[in-house]
Amino acid sequence: MGYVAPKHRARYGRLMREHTHFGFRDVPLSDKQALVDDVFRTVARRYDLMNDLMSGGLHRAWKDALVAAINPPKSERNFALLDVAGGTGDVSFRTVAAGGAGTRATVADINAEMLGVGGERAREQGLDDAIAFVDANAESLPFPDKSFDAVSIAFGIRNVPRIDVALSEMHRVLRLGGRFLCLEFSNVDVPGLDALYELYSFNVVPALGRAIVGDAEPYRYLVESIRRFPRPNAFAEMMRAAGFARVSHRLMSGGIVALHSGWRL
Ligand code: SAM
Questions:
Q1: Residue in 83, 110, 168, 259 to alter for ligand 1 test, most ligand atoms within 8 A of Cβ
Q2: Cα of 49 to ligand 1 centre, how many Å?
Q3: CB 160 near ligand 1, within 6 Å
Q4: What are the Cα distances from residue 255, in Å, to 34, 88, 185, 193, 252?
């Protein structure tokens, strides 16, 4: 951890003692973010291609469902989306394409490599005015209270060390009447499909990682982290504890993915 100023020692001491999981490994809470950052630094350039390969293109349908729920206005009315852990900006590009001239998106992510890939893409497509890329930690968002019409997080929340803190932050920056949407992997409970999914996740996905990114390890982490993420009803409780109202979720593709929804009322 290196030198820690005396005034911060009590906090770091507590963080070192508190443990969480990094995939199937138990790690000190304070180590998880650096391990996660290594994963996404390694995969950034090939991230979008890998998403297509790993999900057989299904992630596009899951993200379409997310964007339909974000429901950006087709008119020129101003509408601001914050996409937390937005990575290379896929959800933001799709939201801006679905909305009218007043739709803007802000991608907040902790990883400069992922943001860099997205920023380049936005410049190439002439969308730098519509999509902003901001280096930010989900646990401490650098935005004023109630400043966004909608807040989304897609396949990001399970990577954040303190999920409860991130949920409170996303609730804080959402305007009254605004909607929070979280797309995340869930649990496949369909007999037959569950065994197939298990086989695919633990064998095919890391092998694809080795072939395309040159490293199986980041994808082993991604698969393991999916298994450690709370079940939808437990996650719904966490959303309520953070202040969200009318919390609900719907499963997609036999439970591979869940779209969670909550409102700030
Ligand atoms: N949302 C994008 C998508 O669906 O294509 C990217 C999802 S990617 C699986 C997870 C992202 O979470 C990575 O870009 C990673 O850098 C980001 N991330 C991890 N921990 C974070 C944190 N504490 N704050 C903000 N972003 C974080």
A1: 110
A2: 16
A3: yes
A4: 30, 25, 8, 10, 5
Ligand 1 contact, 111 CB (< 6 A)? yes
Is 3 a residue whose pLDDT tops 50? no
Determine the distance separating the centroid of ligand 1 and the alpha carbon of 232, expressed in angstroms: 19
pLDDT surpassing 70 at residue 14: no
Q: What is the pLDDT of residue 10?
A: 53
- Total residue count of the chain as it appears in this document: 265
79-84 and 103-109 strand pairing = parallel
* Ligand 1 neighbourhood includes 36 CB (under 6 angstroms): yes
In one letter, which amino acid is 106? T
| Mean pLDDT, range 179-205, rounded to an integer | 91
List the one residue out of 220, 208, 183 whose CA is nearest residue 39: 220
